[in-house]
Specification:
Helix 10 packs antiparallel against helix 11. The chain has a two-stranded antiparallel ribbon. It is mainly α and about 290 residues long. The protein has 11 helices and 2 strands, in the order ααααββααααααα. It is about 75% helix and about 5% strand. The chain has a single domain, classed as ABC transporter involved in vitamin B12 uptake, BtuC.
């Protein structure tokens, strides 16, 4: 066995898992607070990669894209919540249909403006460094660091700010929160917007690692759903931990088998969790 390859794939899995955790957190917070199964969430990631590509092509600066794209996605998410989600918020079945239609609209809109051919975005930092005895790409480590900072900032926001407290209160008991004067409608809009921004931020961070393609969200969405289910529905820390765990496991399996087998292993793990512990394996984590 090539141990250097094994180490590289394991580290890749952790790095990718941290990026997926960003995206899956957005999916989980939307589901946990709005009870919306957002089938279009992977396409918010895709839109983030495409917007990052355009911003970098326009400004020549990746860091501008890192700051600007999540802000634009936040605004887009607010508009979508107001026009698409709010009218069907109390109908779970309709939310699947509506977000599926939104997914098609986003994909076809990007395909019409961006084109169908995949593109590559150059990493803003080039070169490698020694890590665990192997030469490893510096930008991937930077992507992991950015993801950790963003995830930490999100949890600090939830637990240390007034609006974060409102979000947790509405999620815990919507009627009681509204009776106490918490503006639930603003919380709903902000929650969907921040979930969209997290997905787009994951897209910006991932763009130099993966391809920029109008179909890239199709592959991301199942992984995010698996992380949400394994971590526990609505359990934000559990979702983040499950995303990293899944990506790490797939990275290890890929070292000696086909990536398809690695994905099948993840699906088997999810099925086992649903059978044995349907509330998720990280239910005891703080929310």
């Amino acid at each position: 066995m090539d141990w250097n390859l094994l180490i590289a794939l394991a580290i890749n899995g952790i790095v990718w898992g941290l990026i997926i955790a960003l995206i899956a957190l957005g999916l989980s917070v939307i589901f946990g607070l709005l009870d919306i199964i957002n089938v279009a969430h992977g396409d918010f990631f895709m839109v983030g990669t495409v917007m990052a590509f355009f911003v970098v092509q326009t400004t020549g600066n990746f860091w501008v894209a890192l700051l600007l794209v999540p802000l634009l996605a936040f605004i887009l998410g607010g508009i979508i919540e107001r026009l698409v989600i709010r009218p069907i918020r109390n109908a779970a079945a309709l939310s699947i249909v509506a977000t599926f239609g939104l997914s098609i609209i986003l994909q076809e809109s990007v395909r019409g403006t961006f084109g169908a051919s995949p593109r590559r975005l150059l990493a803003p930092v080039e070169g490698t460094t020694m890590l665990f005895g192997i030469e490893y790409d510096i930008y991937r480590l930077l992507a992991a660091l950015i993801s950790i900072i963003a995830i930490s900032a999100f949890f600090l926001f939830l637990h240390k700010t007034k609006f974060g407290t409102w979000m947790r209160a509405v999620r815990h008991d919507r009627e009681a929160a509204m009776a106490m004067g918490i503006p639930a409608e603003k919380v709903f809009l902000f929650t969907f917007a921040i979930g969209t921004a997290l997905a787009a931020l994951g897209g910006v961070v991932a763009a130099p690692i993966t391809t920029v393609d109008f179909k890239s969200g199709v592959d991301i969405l199942p992984f995010c759903f698996m992380a949400v289910i394994i971590g526990g529905l609505g359990n934000l820390p559990g979702t983040a931990a499950a995303a990293v765990l899944l990506a790490f496991i797939e990275g290890l399996i890929t070292s000696f088998s086909d990536p398809t087998v690695a994905r099948i292993a993840s699906l088997c793990l999810m099925s086992a969790v649903l059978l044995v512990r349907p509330q998720g394996i990280f239910t005891g984590a703080s929310r």
